[in-house]
Specification:
InterPro entries: DUF4007. Helices cover 50% and strands 10% of the residues. The protein is built from 15 helices and six strands.
Length: 301
C-alpha cells in the first residue's frame, strides 16, 4: 500500500464542521440522496432545512456511517436495508439500530478516530483524558509517517465531537440539553464521563469505556458483525472474537462473559453454529452458510 493509500484510507480527521451527528440526520440524508438531490447545489440548504455548514456536516456523517457512496450518488446496501421507508428501522426506533450504526462508523473508517478508539486505544487503557487520547492519535500519525495529518486543533475538535456523541452531558440549560440528547449514541452508554482531581487538586474530565456483559445487544446483531468482519472464515477463535480488529468484543466493548453469552445464544438459535472448547482451544465453527441480512431480518421482524 502506498503512502497516498494510507493517507486516504487509514487516518482521516475532521469534516463534520464541529457538529455531532443527530439521529434524525441519517434518514434525512438518505432521503435526500434517494431523491437525486445534490449536496453541492445551493438548493440543498432549502431542501434539508439547515445552514450551509450543517449541509456539509450531514453529507460528511452519512458517508461516515456508510449510508451513501463516496460520489454522493447512491445509498449503500446497508442503508437500503435499514432506511428506505419499508426498511428494517428507517427512523432508528430500535436500540439495535444504534449498535449497527456504531459498528458501521468504525468499520467504514472515514472518521478514523472511532476505529482508533475502539480497536486500538481502548486496549491500552479503558479510562483516559482528552489529552491522553490526543497523544495516542499523534503517536499513530507518527507511526504511519503521517505527521502532516496530525493537527492538534483539528484532532481536539474530533475528540470533542466523538465524546459528545457517546457521553451524557453535565447539567446545562434546557436548550443545550435538548440539543445534546439528540446526539447519536448516548443510549448505548458506552462512554462514561466522570471527574477526578489531579495532583494540583483541580477537577479534570475523565472518560471510561468498560468491558461489560451488555445483555441489551441483540445476539443477531453480534452474529451479523461476526459474519461481516470474519467473512469467508468457517472457524474463528474466541480470542479473535474478543480482541480482533472490528470484532464484536472490540466494537461493542464486551467482556469475556458477555461475549461468551452472545456466542451461546447464537449457537442455541442457529443450526450449524457450533462452539467448541477442547484442549484449551475455544473455537466458533460455522458449518452452514448464513446470509447476514437474513439474520437481521429475523431480528427486526
Amino acid at each position: 500500500m502506498s503512502f497516498t493509500d494510507i493517507e486516504k484510507t487509514k487516518l482521516q480527521f475532521s469534516g463534520h464542521e464541529t457538529f455531532a451527528c443527530k439521529q434524525f440526520w441519517i434518514k434525512k440524508g438518505f432521503d435526500f440522496v434517494v431523491s437525486n438531490k445534490s449536496f453541492t447545489k445551493p438548493s440543498a440548504v432549502v431542501d434539508l432545512g439547515v445552514g450551509k455548514n450543517m449541509v456539509a456536516a450531514i453529507r460528511y456523517w452519512i458517508k461516515s456511517f456508510n449510508i451513501i457512496d463516496e460520489d454522493d450518488e447512491s445509498p449503500t446496501e446497508f442503508a437500503n436495508y435499514f432506511f428506505r421507508d419499508n426498511g428494517f428501522d428507517p427512523y432508528i426506533e430500535d436500540l439495535g439500530t444504534l449498535w449497527m450504526l456504531h459498528y458501521q462508523i468504525i468499520k467504514k473508517n472515514k472518521a478514523s478516530i472511532y476505529s482508533l478508539l475502539f480497536n486500538e486505544f481502548r486496549k491500552e487503557r479503558n479510562d483516559f483524558t482528552k489529552e491522553q487520547f490526543s497523544s495516542f492519535l499523534k503517536r499513530k500519525c507518527n507511526e504511519e509517517s503521517l505527521q502532516s495529518r496530525y493537527n492538534e486543533k483539528t484532532v481536539a475538535t474530533d475528540i470533542n465531537v466523538l465524546l459528545r456523541s457517546y457521553s451524557k452531558p453535565e447539567r446545562k440549560s434546557k436548550i443545550e440539553i435538548e440539543d445534546t440528547f439528540a446526539n447519536m449514541f448516548l443510549d448505548l452508554e458506552l462512554v462514561h464521563h466522570y471527574k477526578k482531581r489531579n495532583f494540583e487538586e483541580s477537577l479534570i474530565d475523565w472518560y471510561r469505556i468498560d468491558g461489560e456483559i451488555r445483555s441489551e445487544i441483540p445476539f443477531q446483531i453480534v452474529f451479523f458483525v461476526i459474519l461481516d468482519s470474519f467473512e469467508d472464515l468457517q472457524s474463528i477463535s474466541f480470542r479473535q472474537l474478543l480482541t480482533g480488529f472490528n470484532s464484536p468484543g472490540s466494537i461493542f466493548a464486551l467482556n469475556t462473559e458477555g461475549l461468551y453469552k452472545k456466542i451461546i445464544e447464537i449457537t442455541e438459535n442457529f443450526d450449524g453454529v457450533v462452539y467448541n472448547e477442547t484442549a484449551g482451544n475455544q473455537i466458533l465453527q460455522l458449518k452452514n452458510h448464513f446470509n447476514k441480512w437474513e439474520i437481521l431480518n429475523e431480528y427486526y421482524n
